[in-house]
From TrEMBL:
Keyword annotations from UniProtKB, A to Z: ATP synthesis
Gene3D superfamilies: P-loop containing nucleotide triphosphate hydrolases
Listed name of the protein: Polyphosphate:AMP phosphotransferase
The keyword Ion transport is assigned to this record: no
Catalytic reactions of this protein: [phosphate](n) + ATP = [phosphate](n+1) + ADP
Source species: Roseibium sediminicola
Top-level taxonomy: Bacteria, Pseudomonadati, Pseudomonadota, Alphaproteobacteria, Hyphomicrobiales
Amino acid sequence: MFESARLPQKMTKKDFKKLEPKLREALLEAQLPMVEKQPFSTLILVDGLDGAGKGEAVARLYGWMDARHLVCNAYGEPMDEARLRPPLWRYWRDLPAKGDTAIVFGSWYQFVLRDWIYKKIDDDAFDKALTRIRRFEEMLANEDVLILKFWFYLPKKVQEERLEHIQKKQAARHVLADWAALKHHKKASEAGEKIILETSKGHAPWFVIPSQDPEYRDSALAQTVAGAMKLKLEDGEPHSVAAPPIVGGLKRETAVDAIDLTETLEKEEYHALRDKYQQQLSELSDRKSLSKTGVVLVFQGNDAAGKGGAIRRVIRPLDPRIYKVHPISAPTDEEKARPYLWRFWRRVPRRGHFAIFDRSWYERVLVERVEGFAGHDDWLRAYNEINEFEQELTDFGFIVQKFWLAISEEEQLRRFKAREETAYKQHKITDEDWRNRLKWDQYAIAAGDMIDRTSTHYAPWTLVSSEDKRHARIKVLKTICDRLEEVL
C-alpha cells in the first residue's frame, strides 16, 4: 500500500496562495450550513507517522474554518480517570454535538498501533481491537456522525530528514519518542496497512495523504474535508475513498502515472533473456515443492497493453496439464445471480497448478466502477473483500502475483489503429475499446486507487512499463521466476 503516497506530490507556493481563498470558502460553505441545520456532527481523525506535519496541517485547518464550532481533542497515555474505565470511554465522553466538528489527535487507533508495535499485545488482541473499533465507528455513523480518517504518510528517508530538522530547533528530549518511532517505520507501515485495509468503510473511510510537501498536504486535507461534508449534507454519504484525484487543479500523481514508460530492450538481449527465464520457469515448475502450493497470476492493464502476449510467454515453458488461462469478460446471467467473487473462487487452482487470469476480480473496481455497473458502496467495499480473498489464498500457501501493464495514451491509439488495419488482429478491437478510451483519466484514477488499496505485502502489484513489449515480457517472466525461486 501507500504506493501513490510515496510519490513527491508537489504544489508551488504561488499555486497554494492562489488556491487558499478557495479552500477557505469551500470549508465554510460546508461547515456553516452544518452548524445551522445540525444534521450531523463530524469527527476528523489525524493519524500517521511522526514528523509528517499533522499538527501543522490541523493548525492551518483551524485558521480556515469557523473555530467556534471546532474543537481539537488530543489524547496521550490514559490518566487515572481513563485507566479506570474501558479504552473507548474518553472518546465517547468528548463526542461533538450535531453541527460541531472535533479533530482527534491520538485516536483509538494510535494506542492499539503502538501496543502492537512494542509487543504489548499479540496479533489476536490486535485483531479483536480492530473489530471493536469497526463496531464503534459503525454505530457512530448510524447516529449521524461523519467520520473522516486521515493517515499522513512519509517515506522513511523523508521522515528521518524531518526529525533531524526538528531536532535542530528543539531540545533532544522532545524528539526522543519520534526517533524511537523511526526505528519501527517498517512495522508501523505494515500495521498502518492492516488498519486501513480492515477499517476503511464507506461510513468511515481512510484518506492516505502524501505529506512530503506541506502545501499539497494541507490542500488535500482541506479539500477532502470540505468535499465530504458537502456530500454528506446533500445525500447523507461521504462518497470518497482516497485523497482527492485533483487538488487545486493539480492532478494527484498515482503509482500508475509514475511508471517509467521509456524503458526498452533490444531484440538480441530480449531473446537471450527470454530463453533464460523460460528455461528457469520450466525447471521451477518441475520441482516437487510446487505440489505444496498453487500459483495465481493476475494480468490487468490498459487496453492493448500486451497482456495476452505476456501470458503467452509465461505459459510457453509450462506443462499444459498444470496451468489454465482464464480470460475474463462481462459476467454471464448465471454469474450475475451470485456474489461477484463466485466465478473466481470456481477458478482457484489446486496445489501444484497455475491459474492465470487475463483480467480478474479487479474489474469490480475498474470497469464496474467507471462505467457505473457497480454502485459506490459496492466497489468501495470490494477493496477489503478482494484483499481478504487474496489473503485467504496466501494463508493457504498459494502464491499470488499481480501485474499492471501500462502504456501511454498515444501508444494505445497507435496499437488500436494497427489492430484495425491487420486482418488477424481485428477481433481484438471493439467499439467498447474505443468508448473506454474516452474515459482514460477516470480509468487512470481508478487504477491508482486500486493499486494503493490492494498492493499488500502478501499479494503486491508489479507495475510494468509495456510501451516496449519486449521489456514488459521480460519483466513479467523475471518477476515470476524470482518469486518462485524464493518460495519453492
